[in-house]
User: What shape does this take?
Amino acid sequence: MNEVPRAFEGEQSLSEPNIYVSLTYNALDASLAMARVKSPKAGAVVLFAGCTRDSFASRPVTHLSYSTYPPLALRSLLSIAKAVHCEYELVGIAITHRLGRVDIGDESVLIAVAAPHRKAGWRAGEECLERVKARVEIWKEEWFEDGGVWMSNRDGQAGVPVVEGGSGGGGGAAE
Amino acid sequence: MSTPKPPPGHFTLLYFASATSFTRRSHDFFSAPLPLSQLYDAVEKKYPGIREKVLSSSALTVNLDYVDVEEEVQKGEKGMVIQAGDEVAVIPPVSSGTLAATFHPVSWERDASAVDQPTPYEISSGRSRDRGVQLR
Assistant: This one.
């Protein structure tokens, strides 16, 4: 019905020592994400899982769908991971973003960071997520139970010309 | 759907998100060489209206590097020239569920007829060039 053609099968990744970023159409694995960053040098591992919420602005959502330009998104993910790793003096960092259809309750992104101490870990995880959402070339569609499809945009600062469809909503969104 | 290889003497232009929705295609091949400053004219000719509705709010990459289209236009003949085999991509504003997110509903019926991808067509006047700078 709404299956977007897959750009690849399995997982595509880029890595450097203690840094791992990937894209996959498969279900995400939180244990694997943690395992990628754990170290005897890390007193804290912070794992963030962004999940698909079942509604937006009271409208029931059936699922989300993500599309991307894989090589560019991987490059951006690696750039963010390296910067956060350096700025927060992390032991390790791993980011995996899911593509294609993501059903309610499923994870669309996992970010795992390992730090010597928890404070840097918490902060690094949050900052990393914000950068991923703001900058990585991954586009999201929200599919609603009543038949609508909305594509969300990051940019609400400038005027938004409505080319087609009804009036736009606003506010937060499912992850 | 791996990255399409252009025929000899051509480059690939990739479309994503709102660009795909507008063109109903994932990519096109254009004749090379082509000065970057003429790219949007060529795309507008093929898809009337796309400049205002998509390109003006999108960023552009050439072989995975962001380029500043306005700057290249200003350079005139000294600007970048797209070569055969190059991979160029229109990068619409990135989706994200932040407080600044804006949404536009699009009817199911209309999108059900989409060929490539039933994405709704809607755009925002994003600050695309700023994004390009951030990503460097």
Q: What stands out?
A: Helices of chain A lie at 30-37, 70-87, 118-135.
